[in-house]
Every structure is written in structure tokens, then in C-alpha cells.
Design brief:
The complex is a heterodimer of chains A (500) and B (446). Chain A has 500 residues and is mainly α. Chain A has 20 helices and 3 strands. In chain A, strands 1-3-2 form a 3-stranded antiparallel beta sheet. In chain A, helix 1 packs across helix 6, helix 3 packs across helix 12 and helix 5 crosses helix 11. With 446 residues, chain B is mainly alpha-helical. In chain B, the strands form 2 sheets. A two-stranded antiparallel ribbon of chain B has the order 1-2. In chain B, strands 3-4 form a two-stranded antiparallel ribbon. Chain B starts with 8 loop residues before the first helix and ends in a 23-residue tail after the last helix. The chains are: A mainly alpha (500), B mainly alpha (446). Chains A and B meet through helix 1, helix 6, helix 12 and helix 14 of A and helix 2, helix 4, helix 5, helix 6 and helix 11 of B.
């Protein structure tokens, strides 16, 4: 610390990011609990009165902070869901950095002119102008030069932030000495929110909600197919600017209330988490707003319970946890759900391969079961199946054991096996679908009969009942009744690549 | 310059050198980040390393450079890996994946630091955002020289980056532009990717620990983007970006000392001004770059539209003469009325034509010279040949003919016109019934 103090102006300014975020600790520790000293940084399990105070919202300050951050999380989550789908998630990152020079210049200019440079209106105006200039710079660089969007974001982010630090370096030297308080304005003061902050956030949230509701269809179009929207006569550029305007609004209101990193996180993380739960845009927007609100509420609540945990960081961590849970366990697109679906499909594919091999063996023996078979099939030797596909004896035996457990077949001293009636029906159905697809390929896609087996091999598992009915109609096979279609090619070919 | 009175080579020289080294080291790898559209990775990494630093503190219990560096570099690489992993397995947009990873890690680091603060003397600002102004104070002995530690560290990083870029230039190039091609050529694109990510993490950590994180984030992106506007060759681009980076370091430090004095204050943040200087160089390039510059594009477009307008004026006079063989004189206003062109551009076109000797200005207005008539005749011939060709071979109908021929006539040279004449059926009138003027003999044959 001592090494830092005498010289590093930029370090001092930048340090405020952390200090202000962790500074909320000190602010929320200002409650009359009387526990520990200011240097006591340990996190103790909260006592019952603390629980009651937070959960029942007894404290005015707690109420205010929880309401403010929750509203902000809700607004940011809503906007974030659009920017995520527009692949502009880090726009908030760039824009929040781009507000810095505006804040600095507004402060310096107003102070030089003899006004109160720290007035919220002045700083917000500076931040807004600077943010809009940054936004225009990004759009200009992206549209008028060959520099890509990501580099445009990086350029605006770093150059504007550098300019801001340079301006604040001057502001630090101002006679008024108020500049020291400036960082709190810039980097947030979550736990020491005043009613005005909450009101501002509420107003911004309302604007965001109304605009998103009114322009939902248009914004959705913008996110998914900009070119189509333009061709239908929608003003896509104006819509783009409206969306970016929403990002700027939320960012600026949020910045001075909760800080830089938290603002970025609230714009990105809830939307990402919501994306795992649904494929519908409207549901996703609502889920994103809800996750944002919930993370903010929980994070701020935890911080109020254990005052040594900085609230900004806690909100981000809660949101990150929600994201991780969503990524793994969400039913729609979560990793676990996707893995389970893949495993189910894989095991179905392996099972049906075995069943069809048995069926084809039975077919060449001349006693093929029908698709509504009610008797056990004839016996098939396991050794004969081995040459039907490119599988090893171990794989084959493992698959036979699996099917036996599922009651599809019955082995006899592990040298022969018989399909149960249920197994007969599935084997016949799979083979039926396989041959229908082969016929379709031969008749409509002009594929040589010797080549169709492999293509049908992949398709047979995913043809559903309506598709089968349509194929039957198309190929005039409905008169076949419940029998299986005859194979369009010889079955007793030796095993080879065409049969793999 | 009055602002540089207290310039001191043994002090400011080292600061500029540190900044320039940081710029060179960052821009060497930054080119590949920009080409791979991962420009914000530097920003993400420099925020995300906080838990690595905190963990290094908690484990080593002291503010040692080496564990700090290792911890930060490890988390930096982890950031790149986690971003890649979330993007690939979670099917999340790359920017969003980056946002999730770095904000989450930053928050984690913040909580860890708050918990660690009572055990070690630790100021996150000082750790994360070293100040470039402090550079000359912390020196190590190299031989008999006292060299700032930062300069030594950044020199090593620059050399390592240079070494990797030179040795793996071909591999990095191919895997940046076309990962699929790289794979078919037997280059492991993902190893190249992770090598690059490691370099980015090491460079980011080494730089911001010593010279501040604004600088390194700016230097990863801005010089490379500037160079990208100047050239299409990767090797030239890397060289230009290094020069731009170094130049912005020098300009930035001078700017930090001089600019605040204009409004009566002492010097301001050097790192911030270096970023601003790089931004100004980029802005200049955006407008003035020879091929991709906005201004150059405008100039090229303006010249093209002026020459097209001038040709249209010639053709107008030629058609007038066809209708009124006694000769026609028009003034500028009459030309504007016929061509619906703007006042300024019409005057410019007429001026160009007069300078070139295609028009003469008499007392009543302009008329064609012999040279102008020859040019106009070639142009009108092109126009009518195109119309005929479009009817015969293109199967186009009446109303579209004129518009298309009007566009094509300006880009038709002698050779193409001869080809057109050969392709059409040797008719002497165009589809509207107007005679096609004959091809004039070449000037030399006259």
C-alpha cells in the first residue's frame, strides 16, 4: 500500500474499482451491530437478529439496496437477453468503460466553470454523452472500415478508458479536492445507495420494460434475422440504435449504483443462464429478467447478512452459480440433459442394430416375424451374427446382455438366442423402416441398390410413425399389412464396409 | 517545447522504454487476436487473473513476484480454456462466454482478497494495476547497469513472443486464417490456439503487473487494428503494429507531460495517454490509410463519379449535335437541367472537360471541340452497341435497355467495344432506331 500511495495516480484511480466494490463492505458494515473492528475481515455465520433484520427487511438501508439491485438485475437481464442473441454481449463492457472520459470531463469542466462538478445530473449527462460517442465510434469503425466488431469494441473500450484515466489524473489535482469522491460515483456504491439511486433505477427499469414490451417482435426479428427484417421494411438500423440505447441507459444508471464489473456481469450472465432453459425468446427474456433479479436479491442479501462479503462481488458470484447450474442441469439445453439424450439415442441405435441383424438372419432362414408378432422367434446362433456388422465379439455379447435385461431376447446357453414377442416386434419395425428408406432412396433419389444400406442404417432409428405412414403411402406398401417390406437387395452378402 | 522542461532521460527514458516494450510484446500477439476475432481476450484475462493473485498470496503468504506471476498466468490460461469450453460445450456465443468467465473470476478474486487482507498486506489496486510512472524506481543490476526490473521482464517477454511468432509464423498464420486448412496440412490448430492463449496470458500478466492494465488491453488491439488497415500481408502487419505501438508509447508519455499544462495542471497518467495516443494513431489511419482509409475511399468514389459525370456531359453534347447538325451551345444551367446534376459537381465536370480540351467556352456557352467529339462518339457508340447487344444476346426489353447501357458505357474500353461490334449483327441502328455512330480510326492511324 505504501508503495502505491505517493505516485501512481492511475493506480489510485483504477484501484478505486476494487476499493469501491469492496468499499460497499465498509458501507454496509455501518449498521449498529457493533461486531468487530474495521480491520476485522472474517466472515462469521450471521446471528439470528441479523437473519431477522435482513429477511424481514427491517432495515431501511437493506430494503433500499435490495429493491435497487433487484430492479437493476431485472432490467439488465431483459436487455441482456437481446444483446446475447445479437452476439453483442460485450457491448456493455465497452460502453461502461466508454462513459469514463465523459464523467471526468463533465467534472473538470463544471468545476472550472465554478459549478458543483459532483452533481449527479452533470456526471450522468457526461456519462451519457460519452457513452453515445463510444457507441457511435463502435458502429462507425465496424461499418466504415474493415476492422471487425470485436476489435472495434476493444479499441473503444481501451482508448476511452485510457482517456478517462488521463482526465481523472487531472481531476485529482483540482483544488476543490472533491475528485476523491468521484470514483465512488463511477465505480458504484451498492451498499450505500440513496433513494435517488433506487428511483433512477426504477425509472430506467420501467423504460426498458416498456420499450422491450412494445418492440418485442421487432427486436426479436433484429436478433434472429436482420437481413430478413430489412427486406420486410423494418428500420433495422433504428432498431439497432434503440437496442444499444437501452444498453447505454441500463449501463449508466447501473454503473454509478453498482459498479463496472457488476454491470457487465448483470448484462451477460443472466441471459446466458436463461438461454439454457428454453428455446423460446419470450420465455428466455422473462427467465433472464428473473435470474437477474434473483441473483441481485440473493447476492445483496448475502452481503447484508455477512457484511464482510462485498455485495457487488456476491451478486456476480450468485449469478455465476446460477449460470453453472443452468449450464449443467437445465432440461432444455443443459449439458447433462444433452448427454442423457445422446446416450439414450446411442443405446437405441446399438440395440436396433442388433435387433435388425437378428431379424435379417431370421429372414434369410425364412421364418421372419411380423410387426405384430405374438410368438417367440426361431433360434439364431450368436456366431452367425458376428459377421453381420463390423462389431467385435465383446461388443456383440455386451449388447446381447443389455437386450436380454430389457426383455427383448432370451439366450440359450449363450450360443443361440431367441427374440421375445416384444423383441420380434421392435426388430420387425426397425427392419421395416430400414427397408422403406432403402426403397425410397432407390426409387426417388436414384441411389444404386448396393449403396442404400449404409444411408438407411443411420435413418432407420429416427423415422417416426407419421413419416413411416407417409413412406408406405408413397411407396404403395400399405397393402403389405403388418408384414415387413421385402428387402430391395440380397441379404446374405458377406460383411463388409457397405454393411457397417 | 515548453512542456518538456523537466524531461529527464534517465527517468522518462525508462518509462518510455517500458511502455514501448509493453506495446511491442502485446502487439506481436495482438495481431493474431485481432485476426481471430478474439480482441477482448486481453481485457478479459487482465480482469480474470485476480483470484490467481489472491491464491498466490494466500498460499505463499507474501508479496513475492514469482508465485504471483505463476498464479496469475495459470488463471489467465484457465480463462482462455474456460471460455473455449463454455463456448464449445455450452453452445454460448464467444463474447458472452468470455463475459461470464471473467466477471465470475473477478468477483471470486475480490472476495478472496477481502478475506486475505487481514493476513497479508495486500492492496488489490497496487497488485492489479501497477503504475508505469513507478518503473524507474525498482531496479535490478544487469551487469554493471542498474536497469528497471520492469524493463528486464518486458524485454524477456518481448523476446519470447518474437521467438514464438518467428518460429511458428506459418503455423500461426494458417491456423488463424483457415483452421480447417491447417488441420488438413497436419498442423494442430488447437495446439497453436493454446500456445497463443498462453502467450497472451503471460504477456498480459507481465505487462499489467508493471505498467498498468489499460495499456496492455489497448496495446493488444489498437496497434494491430491500425496495421490491419494499412496492409494485407501478415508479416508487414506485425511490423507496422510494433512500430505503431512503440510510437504511441513515446507520444503518450510526451502527451501526459504536455497536455495538462495547457490548462494549468501537472502531468497526468502516462498509461492512459499512451492508450489515447494509440487511439489517435488509429483514428488517423482510419481516415488516411492508403487503401482502406475512409477518406481515400471517398476520394476514389468522388473521382469516379466526377469522371462519369464528365462523360455524361460529353455524350449530351454529342446527342445534341446529332439532332441539330448546325451545332449546339449550352451553358452550365442547361447542362444541369438535362442531367439533373448538382451545381458544384456540374461546374467541376465542365472545368475538367475544358482543361482537357474536350469543350470550349464561347460567348453563349460550351460547345464540343474535335477531340471532345471523338471521345463522345466513342462513348455513344458504346452505349448503343450495348443496347443492341442486350437485346440480341441478353433478351432484355425496351425500358431497361437505356439504364443498363448508361451504366456499362463508362466501363467499356476500345477492345470491349470492338468485341461488342463483333457480337452484334452489324446493324447500323440501335433498338430505338437511332444510328450507331461508326468507330473512328485510332489517333495514330490518322
Amino acid at each position: 500500500m505504501s508503495k502505491c500511495r505517493p505516485l501512481g495516480r492511475s493506480a489510485l484511480v483504477l484501484a478505486s474499482l476494487l476499493v469501491a466494490l469492496s468499499g460497499s463492505v465498509a458501507a454496509s458494515a455501518a449498521q449498529p451491530s457493533g461486531r468487530g473492528t474495521i480491520t476485522d475481515r472474517t466472515v462469521a455465520w450471521p446471528t439470528w437478529p441479523q437473519w431477522r433484520r435482513v429477511v424481514l427487511l427491517e432495515d431501511y438501508n437493506t430494503r433500499l439496496v435490495l429493491a435497487g439491485t433487484t430492479l437493476l438485475g431485472c432490467a439488465a437481464g431483459t436487455v441482456g437477453s437481446f444483446t446475447l442473441l445479437r452476439k453483442r454481449s460485450l457491448m456493455g463492457d465497452a460502453l461502461s468503460h466508454a462513459t469514463l472520459p465523459g464523467i471526468g470531463i463533465a467534472f473538470v469542466a463544471t468545476t472550472l466553470a465554478g459549478g458543483n462538478g459532483k452533481s449527479l445530473a452533470v456526471l450522468l449527462a457526461g456519462a451519457t454523452i460519452s457513452g453515445i460517442v463510444g457507441l457511435l465510434a463502435i458502429l462507425f469503425i465496424r461499418n466504415a472500415t474493415r476492422v471487425k466488431e470485436d476489435a472495434a469494441l476493444g479499441i473503444v473500450l481501451s482508448v476511452f478508458f485510457g482517456a478517462g484515466v488521463a482526465v481523472l489524473g487531472v481531476a485529482q489535482q483540482m483544488e476543490t479536492g472533491h475528485a476523491a469522491g468521484l470514483e465512488a460515483f463511477i465505480y458504484g456504491k451498492t451498499a450505500s445507495m440513496v433513494p435517488l439511486d433506487a428511483q433512477l433505477i426504477g425509472a430506467a427499469g420501467l423504460i426498458v420494460a416498456i420499450v422491450c414490451l412494445l418492440l418485442f417482435k421487432e427486436l426479436r426479428l433484429l436478433c434472429f434475422d436482420e437481413t430478413f427484417g430489412a427486406s420486410r421494411g423494418y428500420p433495422v438500423v433504428a432498431l439497432d440504435i434503440v437496442l444499444m440505447g437501452l444498453v447505454v441507459t441500463v449501463t449508466i444508471i447501473g454503473l454509478q449504483a453498482v459498479g463496472l464489473i457488476l454491470m457487465i456481469a448483470l448484462l451477460v450472465v443472466p441471459a446466458c443462464a436463461a438461454r439454457f432453459w428454453t428455446e423460446r425468446m419470450s420465455v428466455m427474456t422473462i427467465a433472464s429478467a428473473a435470474i437477474g433479479a434473483l441473483s441481485a436479491l440473493l447476492g445483496a442479501g448475502l452481503s447484508a447478512l455477512a457484511p464482510n462479503l462485498p455485495s457487488g462481488a456476491m451478486i456476480v458470484l450468485v449469478a455465476t452459480c446460477v449460470f453453472l447450474v443452468s449450464m449443467f442441469f437445465a432440461p432444455a439445453r443443459g449439458l447433462v440433459a444433452r448427454a442423457v439424450r445422446r446416450r439414450t439415442l446411442e443405446s437405441k441405435v446399438l440395440r436396433q442394430h442388433l435387433l435388425r441383424a437378428i431379424y435379417e438372419r431370421l429372414d434369410t432362414m425364412g421364418n421372419a416375424p411380423t410387426r405384430d408378432e405374438s410368438r417367440e422367434s426361431a433360434a439364431v446362433a450368436v456366431g452367425e451374427l458376428l459377421s453381420m456388422r463390423s462389431w467385435s465379439r465383446r461388443q456383440l455379447e455386451k449388447q446381447i446382455r443389455q437386450c436380454e435385461r430389457q426383455g427383448l431376447l432370451r439366450t440359450e446357453e449363450s450360443v443361440t438366442l431367441r427374440l421375445t414377442p416384444m423383441g420380434c416386434r421392435e426388430a420387425a419395425g426397425t427392419t421395416h423402416r430400414h427397408r422403406l428408406w432403402e426403397l425410397f432412396l432407390i426409387r426417388y433419389a436414384d441411389v444404386a441398390p448396393a449403396q442404400v444400406d449404409r444411408d438407411a442404417d443411420a435413418i432407420e432409428h429416427v423415422l417416426d410413425a407419421p413419416m413411416v405412414a407417409e413412406l408406405e403411402l408413397l411407396l404403395r406398401q400399405q397393402d403389405a399389412g403388418r408384414a415387413v417390406v421385402a428387402s430391395p437387395h440380397a441379404l446374405d452378402r458377406p460383411a463388409g464396409p457397405a454393411h457397417g | 517545447m515548453s512542456g518538456l522542461d523537466n524531461w529527464n532521460w534517465s527517468f522518462d527514458g525508462w518509462i518510455v522504454l517500458a511502455g514501448a516494450l509493453c506495446a511491442v510484446a502485446s502487439s506481436l500477439v495482438g495481431n493474431f487476436l485481432v485476426l481471430r476475432r478474439m480482441s477482448l481476450l486481453g481485457d478479459a484475462i487482465s480482469h480474470a487473473v485476480l483470484p490467481g493473485l489472491a491464491a498466490a498470496f494466500l498460499i505463499s503468504g507474501a508479496r513475492e513476484s514469482v508465485p504471483m506471476f505463476l498464479g496469475a498466468a495459470a488463471v489467465g490460461v484457465f480463462t482462455a480454456l474456460a471460455t473455449e469450453w463454455i463456448r464449445g460445450y455450452g453452445k454460448v456465443d464467444e463474447g458472452a462466454a468470455m463475459g461470464v468467465v471473467f466477471t465470475g473470476l473477478f468477483a471470486l478474486g475480490l472476495v478472496m482478497i477481502v478475506q486475505a487482507a487481514d493476513r497479508v498486506d495486500l492492496d488489490p489496486g497496487c497488485v492489479l494495476y501497477g503504475a508505469i510512472e513507478l518503473t524507474p524506481l525498482d531496479t535490478v543490476a544487469v551487469g554493471s547497469w542498474q536497469v528497471p526490473r520492469v524493463v528486464v521482464v518486458l524485454s524477456v517477454v518481448s523476446l519470447v513472443n518474437l521467438f514464438v511468432v518467428v518460429v511458428f509464423f506459418k503455423e500461426l498464420k494458417i491456423s488463424s486464417f483457415d483452421p480447417a486448412l491447417a488441420k488438413t496440412l497436419g498442423i494442430n490448430a488447437s495446439i497453436m490456439h493454446y500456445l497463443l492463449m498462453t502467450l497472451v496470458a503471460v504477456t498480459a500478466v507481465a505487462s499489467f503487473e508493471s505498467v498498468g492494465n489499460i495499456l496492455v488491453v489497448a496495446m493488444f488491439v489498437v496497434p494491430a487494428a491500425t496495421a490491419h488497415l494499412c496492409t494485407d500481408r501478415l508479416s508487414v502487419m506485425i511490423a507496422i503494429s510494433a512500430i505503431v505501438g512503440a510510437a504511441s508509447a513515446v507520444l503518450g508519455h510526451i502527451g501526459a507531460m504536455v497536455v495538462p499544462q495547457w490548462i494549468g495542471y501537472r502531468s497526468t497518467s502516462t498509461a492512459g495517454m499512451m492508450a489515447v495516443a494509440a487511439g489517435l494513431l488509429f483514428a488517423m489511419t482510419v481516415f488516411l490509410a492508403p487503401r482502406y482509409g475512409v477518406l481515400m475511399k471517398l476520394v476514389r468514389r468522388g473521382r469516379l463519379s466526377l469522371s462519369i459525370l464528365a462523360e455524361d456531359v460529353l455524350a449530351l453534347f454529342f446527342r445534341d449535335e446529332e439532332r441539330h447538325p448546325q451545332g449546339v451551345v449550352r451553358d452550365s444551367a442547361a447542362v444541369r437541367q438535362m442531367l439533373l446534376s448538382g451545381g458544384l459537381s456540374t461546374r467541376a465536370a465542365l472545368l475538367v472537360l475544358r482543361r482537357r480540351g474536350d469543350l470550349t467556352l464561347g460567348s453563349h456557352g460550351y460547345s464540343l471541340t474535335d477531340q471532345g467529339r471523338r471521345r463522345a462518339q466513342a462513348l455513344v457508340r458504346s452505349h448503343r452497341l450495348w443496347e443492341q447487344y442486350l437485346v440480341e444476346s441478353g433478351g432484355l426489353e425496351g425500358s431497361h435497355l437505356h439504364e443498363n447501357a448508361e451504366r456499362l458505357e463508362h466501363f467499356t474500353d476500345d477492345q470491349l467495344r470492338q468485341r461488342l461490334a463483333a457480337e452484334t449483327t452489324g446493324t447500323t441502328v440501335d433498338p430505338h432506331g437511332t444510328p450507331i455512330p461508326p468507330e473512328l480510326p485510332q489517333k495514330g492511324a490518322q
